[in-house]
């Protein structure tokens, strides 16, 4: 289908072969370059914030000695993962609303602003808002595997560090972080593979016509091509392009990880 001028009425066998024309159409389209930029920027921001945030939260939770407090924080950070993105988006839109939203009311009461701000109407803020929403929703769930790895580290090493006079920070820096790095590298490689597949749910639910130049991503672009313009072949070509880029990114990051002495996926 990606190499045809596909028509649902004619099917694959009846549609004409056009070679790489659909790929040429994509790469020549200014809108494609814009949505590719949006996809890469939001994916990289989400990857960095989520990766560092999950490790940081796991390290902090590991240092909590009051079990009930630790379990409470874990529960509160896990819950958003199980909540539908539709609900999360509505909560965010309500909080940021210029008409009685919590954030605007707080800023007005503190005297930091003189009139409400329409946060979701400013395209340059959309990437940051999208990243923060993603971190809030997934950071607790992402810490589970790191906490499991930390729990499996050799406790005798920590005891030896105590004998040598190491403080908490020394043990985190020299024992805990090196202990979770192999797992972190593997998770990073897998995450980089999906960096161009940022999805479309949050962008679709949080976006609006005022910020479409910043919110539209490849999946939404493919959806509009296929069902909006009936250019099914271009949508399939875009999917193939995404798959190829994902494979290349995984191979590159895996190679870099092995060259630097870290474990890789293959």
Strands side by side in the biggest sheet: 1-2
Record field, number of beta strands: 2
How would you sum up the major sheet?
2 strands, antiparallel
Number of helices: 13
Level of helix content?
A: over 70%
Average pLDDT figure? 89
Low-pLDDT residue spans? none
Distance between the termini: 32 Å
Shape: flat
Regarding quaternary structure, how should these chains be classified? single chain
What is the string of helix and strand elements?
EHEHHHHHHHHHHHH
Indicate the structural class: mainly alpha
Q: What is the radius of gyration?
A: 23 Å
Beta-strand level of the residues, as a percent range? Answer: under 5%
SSE order and pairing:
Layout: E1 4-5, H1 11-14, E2 16-17, H2 21-28, H3 30-63, H4 67-78, H5 85-95, H6 102-109, H7 123-151, H8 155-163, H9 168-193, H10 201-206, H11 212-215, H12 218-228, H13 232-259
Antiparallel strand pairs: 1-2
